[in-house]
């Protein structure tokens, strides 16, 4: 795309490493963001009980804040990694990530709250990550489609990565009585996020090599050709 050289292996390594740690970081940020609402709820519990509107206020906060926070955290880190390693400026990436995270988080939290009877089903829980990354990647696609060809593969790759993540994490649950239960869960988490990060990282590199601005043979048919015809008498003047 540009004259500078890049190191795909280094980018992929940092992208995968970021994928492993970004969700725990986002969880901490989300906890901090929700803390004022929790404190407010604790001080106004009697008001919440007697005034349903207060309860709706807390429900709305729970529906929109987590998704926005995760979307911002993920989008900001991704944009910085892409700009640092690839020198690829994706303007609006973080903003669209917040929007996609808001929609995805709203759907996941709403599904959990209002379809509570289904939460015990494993496949119902497995749908959370694919739903969230679907909304997130559709929003990010709004940026990618302006700079890369076949940008829709970003959506497909994220959904596949989300399914792989859920499959590794939920279909390999160890016995809760196992002495190393926590360590096994952490290992599964690392493996799931590693696989998800590898899929999305490879797709970003693939899209990086297919910018819209590059010349390709298909563009030749769309290029106008101007032919100037002059008579001999005009040339002799």
Question: Summed up, what is this model?
Answer:
With 237 residues, this protein is mostly helical.
If you had to describe this structure to a student in words, what would you say it looks like?
With 237 residues, the protein is mainly α. The protein has one domain (8-236). It contains 10 helices and no strands.
Taking the alpha carbons of the first and last residues, their distance comes to 47 Å
Strand segment count: 0
Low-confidence stretches: none
**Percentage of residues in helical conformation:** over 70%
Mean pLDDT: 81
SSE string? HHHHHHHHHH
Give the structural class: mainly alpha
Global Rg: 24 Å
Largest sheet: none
**Globular, elongated, flat, extended or rod-shaped: what is the shape?**
globular
Which percent range describes the beta-strand content? Answer: under 5%
Q: Helical region count? A: 10
Q: How many domains would you count in the coordinates?
A: 1
Identify the notable features of this structure and list them briefly.
single chain; 237 residues; 10 helices; 74% helix
Write the layout of secondary structure elements.
Elements: H1 8-43, H2 45-50, H3 52-86, H4 93-114, H5 122-126, H6 128-144, H7 153-170, H8 181-208, H9 217-220, H10 232-236
């Amino acid at each position: 795309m540009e004259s500078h050289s890049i190191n795909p292996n280094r980018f992929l390594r940092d992208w995968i490493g970021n994928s492993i740690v970004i969700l725990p970081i986002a969880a901490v940020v989300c906890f901090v963001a929700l803390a004022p609402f929790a404190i407010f709820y604790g001080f106004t519990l009697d008001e919440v009980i007697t005034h349903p509107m207060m309860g709706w206020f807390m429900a709305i906060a729970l529906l929109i804040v987590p998704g926005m926070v995760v979307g911002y955290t993920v989008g900001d880190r991704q944009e910085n990694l892409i700009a640092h390693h690839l020198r690829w400026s994706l303007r609006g990436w973080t903003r669209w990530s917040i929007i996609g995270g808001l929609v995805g988080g709203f759907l996941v939290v709403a599904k959990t709250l209002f379809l509570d009877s289904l939460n015990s089903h494993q496949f119902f829980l497995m749908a959370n990550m694919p739903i969230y990354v679907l909304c997130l990647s559709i929003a990010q696609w709004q940026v990618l489609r302006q700079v890369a060809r076949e940008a829709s593969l970003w959506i497909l790759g994220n959904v596949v990565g989300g399914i792989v993540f859920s499959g590794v994490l939920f279909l390999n649950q160890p016995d809760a009585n196992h002495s190393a239960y926590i360590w096994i869960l952490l290992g599964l988490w690392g493996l799931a996020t590693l696989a998800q990060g590898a899929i999305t990282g490879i797709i970003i590199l693939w899209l990086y090599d297919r910018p819209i601005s590059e010349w390709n043979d298909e563009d030749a048919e769309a290029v106008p050709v101007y032919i100037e015809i002059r008579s001999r008498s005009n040339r002799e003047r």
